[in-house]
Automatic annotation (TrEMBL), chain A:
GO terms for cellular component: cell envelope. It comes from Polaromonas vacuolata. Its main location: other. It is an enzyme of class 1 (oxidoreductase). InterPro entries: Asp_de-COase-like_dom_sf (IPR009010), MoPterin_dinucl-bd_dom (IPR006657), Mopterin_OxRdtase (IPR006656), Mopterin_OxRdtase_4Fe-4S_dom (IPR006963), TAT_signal (IPR006311). The gene is fdhF_2. Belongs to the prokaryotic molybdopterin-containing oxidoreductase family. It is found in: Cell envelope. SMART domains: Molybdop_Fe4S4 (SM00926). Gene3D superfamilies: 2.40.40.20, 3.40.50.740, ADC-like domains, Dimethylsulfoxide Reductase, domain 2. Residues 84-140 form the 4Fe-4S Mo/W bis-MGD-type domain. Its cofactor is Mo-bis(molybdopterin guanine dinucleotide); [4Fe-4S] cluster. It comes from the Bacteria. Its EC number is 1.17.1.9. This is Formate dehydrogenase H.
UniProtKB/TrEMBL annotation, chain B:
It comes from Polaromonas vacuolata. Residues 4-34, 47-77, 78-107 form the 4Fe-4S ferredoxin-type domain. The gene is fdhB1. Gene3D superfamilies: 3.30.70.20. It comes from the Bacteria. CDD domains: DMSOR_beta_like. Its cofactor is [4Fe-4S] cluster. The keyword Ion transport does not apply. SUPFAM superfamilies: 4Fe-4S ferredoxins. This is Formate dehydrogenase iron-sulfur subunit.
Amino acid sequence: MLLTKKSPSILRDVATGRPTTEASSRFVQSLSRGLSNALPTMDRRLFLRRSGLGIGVGLAATQLSLVKKAQAATPGEVTSTRNIQVKRTVCTHCSVGCAVDAVVENGIWVRQNPVFDSPINLGAHCAKGAALREHGHGEHRLRYPMKLINGKYERISWETALSEISSRMLDLRKASGPDSVYIVGSSKHNNEQSYLLRKWASFWGSNNCDHQARICHSTTVAGVANTWGYGAMTNSFNDMQNSKCALYIGSNAAEAHPVSMLHMLHSKETGCKMIVVDPRFTRTAAKADEYIRLRSGSDIPFLFGMLYHIFKNGWEDKKYINDRVYGMDKIKAEVLAKWTPDKVEEACGVPEARVYMAAEMMAKNRPSTVVWCMGQTQHTTGNAIVRASCILQLALGNIGVSGGGTNIFRGHDNVQGATDVGPNPDSLPGYYGLAEGSWKHFSKAWGVDFEWLKGRYASPAMMSKPGITVSRWIDGVLEKNEFIDQDSNLRGVFFWGHSPNSQTRGLEMKRAMDKLDLLVVVDPYPSATASMAAMPGKPEDLNPNRAVYLLPAATQFETSGSVTASNRSLQWREKVIEPLWESRTDHMIMYQLAEKLGFAKELVKNVKMQKVKGMDEPVPEDILREINKSCWSIGYTGQSPERLKAHMRSMHLFDVKTLRSKGGKDKLSGYDTTGDYFGLPWPCYGTPELKHPGTPNLYDTSRHVMDGGGNFRANFGVEKDGVNLLAEDGSHSKGADITTGYPEFDHLLMKKLGWWNELTDSEKALADGKNWKTDNSGGIQRVVMQNHGCYPFGNAKARAVVWNFPDAIPQHREPLYGNRPDMIAKYPTHEDKKTFWRLPTLYKSLQDKNVADKVHEKFPFVMTSGRLVEYEGGGEETRSNPWLAELQQEMFIEINPKSAAEKGIRNGDRAWVSTPTGARLNVQAMVTERVGPDTVFMPFHFSGHWQGADMLAYYPKGAAPLVRGEAINTGTTYGYDAVTMMQETKTSVCNFEKA
Amino acid sequence: MARMKFVCDAERCIECNGCVTACKNEHEVPWGVNRRRVVTLNDGVAGEKSISVACMHCSDAPCMAVCPVNCFYRTDEGVVLHDKDICIGCGYCSYACPFGAPQFPSTGTFGVRGKMDKCTFCAGGPEANGSEEEFEKYGRNRLAEGKLPICAEMCSTKALLGGDGDVIADIFRQRVVQRGKGAEVWGWGTAYGSKQAGQPPQGAKS
Amino acid sequence: QAPAAPSTPAAPLATTIGGIQSQSIYQVRPDASQEPGYANQTNAERHKVQPGNNAPIWRQEGGGITGLSSLPVSQAPEAGNLIQRFVQYPGSRLTNAGSAWREVRNQWLIPYGSALLGITVLALAIFFFSRGTIMTHGKDTGRKIERFTPFERAAHWSNAIAFLALALSGIFMAFGKFFLLPILGGAVFGWITWLLKTMHNFAGPVFAVSLVIVFVTFVRDNIPEKADLNWLLKGGGMFGGEEPASQRFNAGEKIVFWSGVTFLGLVVISSGFVLDKILPFLVYERATMQIANMIHLIATVLMMCMFTAHIYLGTIGMQGAYKGMRSGYVDETWAKEHHATWFDDVKAGRIPAQRSKLPSEKTAAVPLKSSPQA
Ligand SMILES: Nc1nc2c(c(=O)[nH]1)N[C@H]1C(S)=C(S)[C@@H](COP(=O)(O)OP(=O)(O)OC[C@H]3O[C@@H](n4cnc5c(=O)[nH]c(N)nc54)[C@H](O)[C@@H]3O)O[C@H]1N2
Ligand SMILES: Nc1nc2c(c(=O)[nH]1)N[C@H]1C(S)=C(S)[C@@H](COP(=O)(O)OP(=O)(O)OC[C@H]3O[C@@H](n4cnc5c(=O)[nH]c(N)nc54)[C@H](O)[C@@H]3O)O[C@H]1N2
Ligand code: HEM
Ligand code: HEM
Ligand code: SF4
Ligand code: SF4
Ligand code: SF4
Ligand code: SF4
Ligand code: SF4
Ligand SMILES: [Mo]
């Protein structure tokens, strides 16, 4: 009895006469555009035609009729009773920036559709992106404000919460000054919220704010910006389709940026070679042509080992180096003298032949690109490692070249944006430093009096002093007061979209949490912090006056705003649903707290209010406009909300390989996208009216600046010790009027060049006395670019030698906790620092002590950590999502079979992992060749177990995630980058035994 | 008439589980039921390959052959579906299926399993196309909506192809030619020993 | 060596596409297949000489294709298995276990099992129509011997009822779709079968328990004796002649007891327990289930055949037997004719005629009263 019920005749019957809803016809439009021809994959339309289904046949017209709520579908009902909308948003789980169409029916997120039109992801998603809709349910979220009372979280009203928090803040301010409160901001906030939070912190009167970028790519940002101008991914995922060779060193893109692999694997099929250098044989390595295992933390020896062969064989791009690079001669001398193959092998464990192979592949298959991520950044030497990678690319002439570049894969969905315009302790939005000039620039942009702003701070000195970093807030609490470079210790902390288990030294964090007067967690999933705070610690640490509040924040699907993907493209998220339960958006919370703290008016001077759930909320578009009007330095000025929204609606117009619009207007607004690059990747200089197309690949001299071309930035003067720092003659972006190197533009240079009069009178009024970054008219940028084809920030050389860094030439230094005292003797770390980001910071003394204490004997295994594809960050969000949680239910440790055998551990056994901090973690053993015998790896996404005990009892009721496990950062050790205070999470030590 | 097939390109699959959660999301599949899963071979060593597997909608389906109540049926597109109203939850299909596709909501004692659930090729079940009953029991009926399986549509690397066997074979062939090597498509033939797997699974040593 | 070919000729093909050299051509060694040990390379080794040639993976026929899945083993023990391992069950080809099991079940057990059952029923029918019920020759004496105590009867009947339920539901599961489905239609058949199957799952353990009791109760009188040989040699008197003398149970019954009740019963129960997933120490992988099913099916079919005969004899096949099991009492004539030795023992007082305690000693007549008049 074989049924054939689903015959096409039935399909046609159902289809006939069915009216098409407006929303669905829009989707059908998007259907009609299949996957790009560039990717040999299926085109749905063609596919359907060939498969005999045909487009528009069957229920195609009603694919939005949500089966879930559908009555036995009779035509007519589809349109009459249902309110179906499609909202375009962007995945919040990593920086790839995959677009998602959320289907919302009567305010409920009922379905998730792939956006084939997105040039970034072509409809593709990894596990996290494909499971996004769960956010619309949020069953494990915090539902209302709570307060810790007698060890239990109890529900309170928003009003109570906001008044109590603000009055406690004001008390702290009175007693200990504004710097006693620390704000851990978030890279999960959209640009508008991050920007507003930096403003909020400033109006509160402190630079003590930070966010995930510190513990993510801070070393990249600092190292790379100091090399050539901007500390960001130079090219894009898409552009990797133009590469002929890709070196992944310290990136596990297959798990951390899965959809980027769509482009890479395609590229590979058209001939690109792929090399992976990693202490682990990762899922990315499994896809590579060559895999090279190196010792964790030894990237500099490896990279310089490659350079050794490049120089030896004359593979470097000599003309490029001459024209565009400063200091390569010094590097060459150092490399040839110091990094001979034997030294390289000794330091990183890679034999000469393998290093040579990698060098040759990269040199002979140009343009070649380097990809890195946390494997390079999260080290005490992170700043130097990333610069070594830059130097490699400069030597090969790969920067500013399509298919080349340093493709630095960023982390959180908006870590790029939050770094660009968000709560950084050492800069204002747009990387404006903390100097008075910047403050004045922003006072103007914010429409507040500079003197008032100054008065908010403890002192002018504190106003220009970078704040404490998120990696060290615990020391801001625990350090002896006399050693810290601010009046008071930290007494109040906001966790505003950040997990606790992502920072190292968990045992000490627990103590710090207990010592606080005020802990506020603003998060849709605040429970990791909440449980850690509620868990009883040492009685002597507990501050009897401590107050802990949990505020339910809305997710990014419950608000709108822009988000900057790794490739610097901005995308606009539409609001999918209203904030669930009692949650409120972050910018609403900022505004409401500001009301209580007395600076609400100032906070939203340029911003209109809209009603959300009957309450005032600042309008995101207006905040973006304020960003557009102030962040000239990085070209966040051209991305008006209108342009971004037009791009989102017209994704199909953009080419997958170049990201450039093939021409065409946005139907709704009539905006002509012709020439634009998708998402107007910053810098998108000038006002929106200038219509700069955005910059797909940074520093690309083969294009005109108005086509997204450019050159290296003049940011470090015009000469150093008599050596020219500007680009050599003839090296400039295409069509530039100035064919030599030139400095950055200001009103004086404009006048000198006789270009001043090309500014309009109103522009002149604003631009006088200003430079390209502070001219609020945008006139200088306009004239320089549009009229003269020049780059506002000048045309200089990239610096292979960064003289203002601790190691002008990148030096290999061993980590503070290592298992190789012999190597520590040869490559010791830095000297201790007395005040560094307001705190004393240990290097040499601790490293020496560790060697003296023979830590390497007690803890002989290198402990490294990283990501699993299913979970994100601290993981509370993703571990609360059943579709993801089911896929990874156990915290585990990867152990090589050899070391496992020595310890008598078999696959699946429980193991105790101990670290030098005294922490003991109970985890499952995963015996695998993935790691070498002297290395172990653990994912860092777990929390909820504390040294073997389940913390379930300490969670706010109903808000515990589905899967809990031991957090590796409970056991991670001390160690910070010598420039940015990046925490060392990639190279530490541990020991383990069978449990 | 088109014959619907899946093919997973092991050269592309990165074990990101996107296909798995896409399926869960689209059909609201409960915890414990995995219509699709990803298997990694040679995990952690050179030659590691991942393959996403669900029901392969076999031509001569073992599940269908052993079902005591004949609740399986095949659509004109070659999709193997079943009727949960008839299913007795005996588990035989899962013993017979080479791929472990059939799933059961519970693994209770006394062999009580509940009604079998498996990948429907996003084609629903015997109920009226697009009806609520169909959704409750089988998830969405994308084929009837003129769409292809969500798992393949969302696959992060387009490793997973689902659709008309001829078309996906074409797509795949194109990739193989571009790669210039005889990469094996992992698909239906592998289990049954047909030449589709690139090379026959038995006897021959290559 | 021949099948290696597909991976090598690809090289010239690819170079023609836009002159793009793809990775494999860059490194593939076309002659790699000539190397010793090529055929036995692991996928990792193969990748070094021929990247992208995954043939070794697909060729793990012996072990099936098993890898790693992140799903916990406790929840999904076989999630890491891509294709069931290749096996050759008796009667199947060498193919993946699922298909092999299907072949055995569908090509052997179901058709031949049903045939056997059919033949048994047919044979009994023929026997019945040609020979009729075996009647008691003499006249009933009216004197009753208690053949089965209430306890024995309770044990027997609960066992018998469970068996009937199991057999009925088992038949639905195994053979129903061939003769009932077309009659009842999918929905009704499915619904009934679901009901029966669920009942089967629960009746199984009941059967198991009662079978143990039955065994214990009846084992004493089923110990084979010399006389049984005689009984057997004479064919139990089935084919003419007097029924040879037997003890309480004759050799035929003893055979049923040992081979049917005990041996097949054990096999059926243990395989049934596996299918029921109630043995705590087992991991219920598909292979386990397949084997258990095949054993169960074979044993149950044999058991059903055997007990069809038993039931035949216990009902229409032999006059008086059924009543003996229903009421517990048989007439002396019946006892003398069918179990002469036992009758002698009762008469001699070696076995009491009344073994169970009567509900109340005041009326010894109770058994007489309730005893059926034959
Ligand atoms: N699924 C998922 N995706 C994510 C995230 C997530 O949490 N989950 N987070 C996002 C964020 S915030 C970020 S920053 C990115 C991070 O993305 P990645 O940096 O790619 O991910 P990690 O796993 O942290 O580390 C990458 C690799 O570095 C290796 N490594 C360790 N030590 C060294 C070393 O000394 N040298 C070299 N060369 N390699 C080393 C590790 O073995 C690991 O394989 O991912 C983003 N995407
Ligand atoms: N050992 C080890 N430690 C590491 C790393 C490592 O590789 N190894 N990686 C480091 C890196 S690169 C990073 S980026 C960090 C990541 O670590 P975190 O960023 O701390 O981890 P997440 O859990 O992603 O934290 C984001 C929080 O923001 C919340 N959130 C999401 N959306 C919103 C919103 O709209 N508003 C608000 N208010 N909250 C929101 C989420 O619920 C979540 O609690 O971890 C670092 N720690
Ligand atoms: C002696 C009487 C029994 C008979 C005649 C019998 C018969 C059958 C038959 C014919 C099948 C179907 C096999 C197939 O279609 O392949 C079956 C299945 C099964 N039997 Fe029995 N069986 C008996 C006893 C038991 C016992 C004692 C148990 C458990 C303790 C049991 C548990 C099962 C189970 C679990 C199945 C699998 C079907 C399912 O789970 O739905 N059976 N039986
Ligand atoms: C409807 C089904 C059945 C009927 C009508 C039936 C009938 C009978 C009858 C009449 C007797 C008495 C024979 C005598 O007096 O010697 C008997 C004995 C017996 N029956 Fe059944 N029976 C049935 C099912 C079963 C089943 C399923 C089993 C066990 C699996 C079983 C086990 C026995 C045993 C053990 C004896 C005692 C004889 C011996 O031990 O050899 N019967 N049955
Ligand atoms: S997590 Fe990253 S790769 Fe995955 S869907 Fe989201 S944005 Fe895309
Ligand atoms: S894969 Fe399994 S469930 Fe699917 S049709 Fe084949 S045998 Fe049946
Ligand atoms: S579980 Fe259901 S579908 Fe599978 S064989 Fe049994 S009755 Fe058929
Ligand atoms: S085809 Fe549909 S039902 Fe089958 S695995 Fe894919 S998403 Fe799930
Ligand atoms: S989504 Fe694609 S790449 Fe990811 S696991 Fe599934 S098949 Fe593989
Ligand atoms: Mo990050």
